[in-house]
């Protein structure tokens, strides 16, 4: 190795220490610099894992989305503060690990019958609520029934529509009986609504008290302002290094940023992408940039003119310059979309589908074919959809001009966007949270009869494949089906998907994190409180 | 550097001596105190501080020179009566008029002046200033200078119409209430109370969510929100006048309400109203900026100074001046309007001494 | 003094009427907003069945007038109902926050009002001097910037570059008064900058407006020193518009500070109200709006009484 290589390796190791480089990047950089893979691997261990997880301290965590009207009801969780709080003071049956695999939480193990229509979960016998009582199968059944039944007001009701019955078998076994096969059910258990709460005697759950079986218990709190928690000593999982956790709702981007810079908080759940690069220059701050399955979509109603013509839909898909959008709206913190709602961060991602590029000329000829030259459409959006949503629509309108398409950007009020615009206006901009598997995503928003079929897309073959893939336990066959579905959505569907956004969040330099950060939510899958630690 | 410092002090000393010789006391005092300040600044801050002072003085001098020339220009083209008034205008008022004139020209001829369209994406995000883009590019790569020019048309136009609307509604109601008194006064007072007692941002949020966000709805809603402030002030000022003996006399003469308002009350209550106009004008700016904070402002990609500040506000923490440019545009206009207002206030107060 | 008392009572009566009108307006405005509490709470998770289930539970299917009258019946007996979203009594939900808001408003007012009036008198005295111009330009600049922007700049200089004050004004119950004042200094200062200019300019304008009056001329010819002319002769007659503007700004300090609360993460009532509107949580919107309305009415009443006391002519309307 030359001196230059040594310098390079030293700098890479430095970067690894600060958490600026992922393990995969680290390995490829180091081997490129002339190291052997084994050498690189051990260097990674000494630089990134120099300090082992240490217990102690109060973790102050600024979270970017909270509302005074939040409640502990798992059926109406909607803000990030509540979702992260739920991952901190309550438990789920399963959880998504840092490396993207599925791991145990309350459930020790799970298995299905061969048609995947009946699932059995074994509950960890050590799990206990903060009140001291053991978590039993009864609590799990009651917690799921909270989201089922005619009078349930849960937002997760649709996710359990194919669950016929949930029964407790003794204190530590729960059976889910489904109307059809669903190979993804254990993944579904990680949905943020399905937090386990203590059951009341009448089969309802006690969500009001805020009791849970998670790593931390709530000492005091005020919705939309802050929560103070302390460690639950009898927690069944590993981690929970901090003694206390303070979760602060910091809705204003500047407030979050200054709080992190001045050390008023130890971590924030979102960093304004505009200032991401500037923040990275601060040696006391680590900025994490994690690809996720969250996406920005632009659904068009496939049953409404002019979008009822597939050529018009494809012309609109060709008229957006995704690279410029990612560069200017996300400042690079995004993965390019290809008009099917299946992200590289999800399992079964088909990697051989050609990327759709910006091609105004082809768009023009498609429009000519459809007899829709000089097309004019309205695109509804609002600032609250995502950071830069309105800017993105404006940029898209500029791109589409080259294809002879006029896009009128209509800024709708932030307030009530998802009740008044989404699913009501024929062409709008939507932000989707990360879902664990393609099946969950497609079933929610692309299935013919889904309540959220935001593009009104009806494709027989797609719907047929969706049901087949769901019950298929053979992974390679399943992957093949998802590939075909992706092609259908890409070439026939009514949704423009410009990109999958990365999660960009930050922490002070003295916060230690695992090598891999979960891609399910910001702040390490919303579990920063139980997975991170202080290094000093 | 040394040459600069030497030249700097030499220029100031020579200027002081000349002014002392020709006996311009006011000017001499100013230049000489600047010299004394410069000695201290030079010792503490070095040549850098002197450069800042030089730039500051140069900007002030340019502004003063332009104002002086503009005043002369106005006197030349105005009708004799008006010209006489204009001659008495202080330099600050002339400066104010010049800025307003510039903004008006920029607003009216925006498409001709702006080198690029307000929505045109011409470069990378946050590109630095160059010959093509005087102030650089914004977050989408649009020319900030062009957007400022268009903003003069969109924001100032909107704010002006809304403020005029608020004044028309508020002052009319206030004057009528003062003159008529009785139940009408009480009724208008209660209506104003009702509107004012709902916080303006919430009121606007409710109204615009219900009525939609077209430009005219924004103008009307903003005018309605601000008219009670004008109403209360007018009512208070006019209330003081209505109890005067000369109004009593006019009433006994049998003059109608309109006569009282036009001939007796209005002329005696213009001063506080004019002062209020200058301020309300910038409050309207801010309300519109606040509305765009809630996603209810002008439709994109229309350039609007308030939203331009908001979009990049977080950058200020890193010393980036992008959000300061539109903020400065708003501040410069408000300050200028109020300079002119001050002068008019001074004239209408009847004070002769300067 | 009796007629003044009568007037106050009369105005209080009208105040109650205003509150009633406000409550009706707010109720129907919230009704007219697209979407209802069920859709707002469920957000992206709303399906027709869940929305219907929630509407049934909250009794939203009954006619609007019936629901309003029910609420009104409770409100006149002091029961403002429970939040439609959290099920918590409204008083608990917003009580503490209103106290926080009052504290911040009082903090800012104690600094801003004397400062603004004093500054107004000084610039009226030194009118058209360099000092007048500079004070003018500075105060005008401070109110021409959006308040969240002023907040950002203060944070940058007084918190990030010079760590004098905390950037976040979050409160905890065990703080001493000194700590509290230190923690909330930046939001208070932002508010001071926002309201000072208005009050100062009105003081100046009202005084200058009187300077040409014959009695001032008289005083001046008698050889009364300029500051005495202003403080003893002009100021007493200028109080009416000044008090009015002060009342307006005090009311603003209580009701208009949503953006400052957001920027400094201060748990005041403004943020609670905006949140409640977005959730269509009618009982909370209504209670907060009525608190604001009552604040306005009382301050306005105080302003009118102040104007009458300072101008005895108003006491006997002819």
TrEMBL record, chain A:
One of its GO terms (biological process) is peptide transport. GO terms for molecular function: peptide transmembrane transporter activity. It comes from Maritimibacter harenae. Belongs to the bacterial solute-binding protein 5 family. Residues 103-447 form the Solute-binding protein family domain. GO terms for cellular component: ATP-binding cassette (ABC) transporter complex; outer membrane-bounded periplasmic space. The keyword Signal applies. The keyword Translocase does not apply. Pfam families: SBP_bac_5. Keywords: Signal, Transport. CDD domains: PBP2_NikA_DppA_OppA_like_17. PROSITE patterns: TAT. It is found in: Periplasm. This is Twin-arginine translocation signal domain-containing protein.
UniProtKB/TrEMBL annotation, chain B:
PROSITE patterns: ABC_TM1. GO terms for biological process: transmembrane transport. It is a multi-pass membrane protein. InterPro entries: BP-dependent_transpt_permease, MetI-like, MetI-like_sf. Keywords: Cell membrane, Membrane, Transmembrane, Transmembrane helix, Transport. Residues 152-345 form the ABC transmembrane type-1 domain. Its main location: membrane. The keyword Zinc does not apply. It is found in: Cell membrane. One of its GO terms (cellular component) is plasma membrane. The chain crosses the membrane at residues 6-22, 27-47, 53-77, 89-114, 156-179, 200-227, 273-298, 324-346. Belongs to the binding-protein-dependent transport system permease family. This is ABC transporter permease subunit. It comes from Maritimibacter harenae. The lineage of its organism: Bacteria, Pseudomonadati, Pseudomonadota, Alphaproteobacteria, Rhodobacterales.
UniProtKB/TrEMBL annotation, chain C:
PROSITE patterns: ABC_TM1 (PS50928). Keywords: Cell membrane, Membrane, Transmembrane, Transmembrane helix, Transport. Pfam families: BPD_transp_1, BPD_transp_1_N. Residues 98-303 form the ABC transmembrane type-1 domain. The keyword Transmembrane helix applies. The chain crosses the membrane at residues 12-30, 104-126, 138-160, 180-200, 242-269, 289-309. Its main location: membrane. It is a multi-pass membrane protein. It is found in: Cell membrane. One of its GO terms (cellular component) is plasma membrane. GO terms for biological process: transmembrane transport. PANTHER family: DIPEPTIDE TRANSPORT SYSTEM PERMEASE PROTEIN DPPB-RELATED. Belongs to the binding-protein-dependent transport system permease family. This is ABC transporter permease subunit. It comes from Maritimibacter harenae. The lineage of its organism: Bacteria, Pseudomonadati, Pseudomonadota, Alphaproteobacteria, Rhodobacterales.
